[in-house]
Every structure is written in C-alpha cells, then in structure tokens.
Amino acid sequence: MVRDEFSVLAAFVAVAEERSFTRAAKRLGVSPSALSHAIRGLEERLGVRLLARTTRSVAPTEAGEQLFTSARPAFGDIRQALDQVSGFRDRPAGRVRLLLPRSAAMIALVPKLAQLARDYPDVVLDVTTDNSHVDLVAAGFDAGIEIGEFIQKDMVAVRVSEDLRAAIVGSPKYFASHPRPKHPRDLLDHACINFRQGSRGTYRWEFDKGRQSLTVAVDGPLIVDDAEIQVRAALDGVGVVWTLEHYAAPFSSAGKLVRVLEDWCPPFPGYFLYYPSRRQQPAALSALIKTLRLQK
Questions:
Q1: I need a labelling partner for 83 at 20 to 30 A (CA). Which of 10, 28, 42, 237 fits?
Q2: Helix (H) or strand (E) holding 283
Q3: Would you put residue 274 in left (φ > 0), alpha (ψ -120 to 50) or beta?
Q4: By CB neighbour count within 10 A (0-12 exposed, 13-18 middle, 19+ buried), where does 263 fall?
Q5: What is the pTM of this model?
Q6: What pLDDT, in 10s, does the model give residues 63-113?
Q7: Residues 167, 164, 249, 194: is their CA dihedral positive or negative?
Q8: Beta carbons within 8 Å of 197's beta carbon, 6+ residues apart
Q9: CA–CA distances in Å: residue 92 to residues 84, 122, 123, 196, 217
C-alpha cells in the first residue's frame, strides 16, 4: 500500500506540473487512461476532488493545489537524491574503503596513488593497513588487497602486482659468526626475526624446491608486524629474516645483506585486489580497479 500511495502521489504531482494527462503519462511511461484511473482512485480514497478536468485542460482544485504545494518539494528532494546516488554509478566520485597489509600497500598501492588522484580527483581512498584476517563486508570495507591464497573463493579477485619472491637474508656481520644455512631446517639453529600476521598469528616460514614443500616454525629474539622493521633489525645484525624480495633487494645488491636459501624461494603469485560482487559496482571502486589492475 505504501508503495502504491507513493506511486500515485508521484503521478498526481506529474499531472499537476504538466497540466496534462497526456504529457504526464508520456513522462512517466504509462498510458493516459491508466494515469487517469490512478488519480481517480486517489480522489476516491481521500474523498475529495484533486483535479478539475475539461476536454481542453487539467488544473488542481483548491484541495489539489494544497496537496501539490506540499508534495512537490518532497518529490523534488527525492529526485535530487536519486540523481546523486546515480552519479556514483556513472561518475567516479565518493569514498572507497580499502583494507590491506602494509607490505601490499607499499608494493601494489603506493606507486599508483598519484595516478589515481590525477585521473579521478573526486574519489577519496580511505586506506586501512592491517595484517589480520578481517571479514571485509562485516567490517564495512569496499575492497581489500591480499596474497591470492588468503582470499576467500566467493570474492572477485583482480591481480594488481607481479609475482612475488621471498628473500632469506642476514647481515654480513651476523653470518661472520653463524654458518650460512644450506637447508630450511638449518634455520632452527639461527636467531630469526619473526613476523606477526595479526589474528593469523606468527608466520611460519614457507619453502618450496621442486616437489618439496615445507614450513619451518623458527625462533628468535624479535617478533614484529612490520617488514621494514624486520629488515632494519637484520641490517643491524639481530638475526635472519624471511621477507619479500622487494624489501631486501636494495640492501643485498649493495652488500649490506647476505641472501641465503635462494633455491628454496621460487616466485609465487602476488597481490590481488578483491571485493564481494561485480553487481552494481560503484564507479569509484571501478576507478580504483582500473588504476591498480596489473597490465600485461
């Protein structure tokens, strides 16, 4: 009933504005007879005549004018609100809440921020960095970025980085007093700098070589939740660290970090932007996807 009353009131406002059933019917996409029938039904329910009709013209009665004066601004506000909401579909504007680990931000997001701001100045990107496993929808985020293996199967995923590769590194000073590991299990005898993955707990170091795969629960004097702190500690000789090649490469190429177990660290698929559905996707999210998508 509420929906019917709303539709009939909208029809009445259209007829009162157009002063014509024919023009109002064309505007609303209905037949003049159906429109006339709807207005007559409204008049019968209210017990008052709203429109004076002749063969040549239509005009509101006194009661109709009063209803029109009250209803027209409300419908104008509704139209404006609907137009604004439709703008989110057609024009990249508004806020996109994005959840991702800090390492993903530095690798897949930060290099593209300037392009996003330049191409879509009306998009506001609201970024939260968190290493925990968070329910994207329940937490109110529009999208996330994560390594592919951690993304739920019911999410839509778009690749946003090249393959990644692990780097096991320590400082020359550290390896001057500790033998370099030749097998991942040798790390059990080393001081290792661990990484906390929020609610996922401490990361167990993963290795692959041919058909061999294993994980090693290492131990050491330091547990952190930031890759840059890990690398800084490794540079200072605190111990050995499992990190992404992205963080270690500048220092290993300069001789400040020594890389070991390279043959146990093959490339693996990188970061993906993920979100719940393709249906009625906001234009601002589409703009973010277009900007971050890995170009092949």
A1: 42
A2: helix 283-292
A3: beta
A4: exposed
A5: 0.69
A6: 888 888 888 887 777 766 665 655 555 578 889 999 999 999 999 999 999
A7: negative
A8: 131, 132, 133, 203, 225
A9: 12, 7, 6, 36, 46
